[in-house]
Write a structure and sequence with these properties.
Structural class: alpha/beta
Oligomer: single chain
Strand order of the largest sheet: 4-3-2-1-5-6-7
Order of helices and strands: EHHHEHEHEHEEEHH
Distance between the termini: 27 Å
Number of helices: 8
Strand content: 15-25%
């Protein structure tokens, strides 16, 4: 799987409340959540983000509560993947459960800038910064997690398995 898009850059410790503020958790509608994604980190983000964009962040992305709304809001807003130095474990699992690819890379999180265009080879764990002509490595996504992403998340993966049996 190859992903290519424009980067939105965020720092350390972007918590789930910055990704989707608690005041919007009275809905689980992905379209409604997308209208408020990242607005506490960048108030204009929901109106600027485009389908196919990518987020690059520093350490501990998705820390805070275990709300599944956070990766749902990102995916619904059109974010096709997140690259960070590290992820909170519950966000990591929730992201794959809803089919949002995430990649851990020290170099990429430091060297990629806002507005850069990058290309991610999910199978090989290679991130190419097309804007700067640089290449970084990321931890490749394990095969089972790739299956979850391809299926659209854990629920869709399970539905397909049940139909196949």
């Amino acid at each position: 799987m190859i992903l290519k898009g424009k980067v939105w850059k965020f720092g350390d410790n972007i918590d789930t409340d910055a990704i989707i503020p608690a005041r919007y958790l009275n809905t689980s509608d992905p379209v409604e959540l997308a209208k408020h994604v990242m607005e506490d980190a960048d108030k204009d983000f929901p109106s600027k983000v485009k389908a196919g964009d990518l987020i690059v962040a520093d350490s501990n992305f998705g820390c805070g509560s275990s709300r599944e709304h956070a990766p749902i809001a990102l995916k619904a807003a059109g974010i096709q993947a997140v690259v960070a130095r590290s992820f909170a474990r519950i966000f990591y699992r929730n992201a794959f459960n809803i089919g949002l690819p995430i990649f851990e890379s020290d170099d990429a999180s430091v060297k990629i800038s806002q507005g850069d265009v990058i290309e991610i080879d999910a199978d090989g764990g290679v991130i190419r910064n097309i804007t700067k002509g640089e290449t970084y490595t990321a931890k490749p996504i394990p095969p089972f997690m790739q299956e979850l992403i391809s299926a659209g998340g854990l629920i869709e993966w399970t539905r397909k398995r049940i139909k196949a049996s």
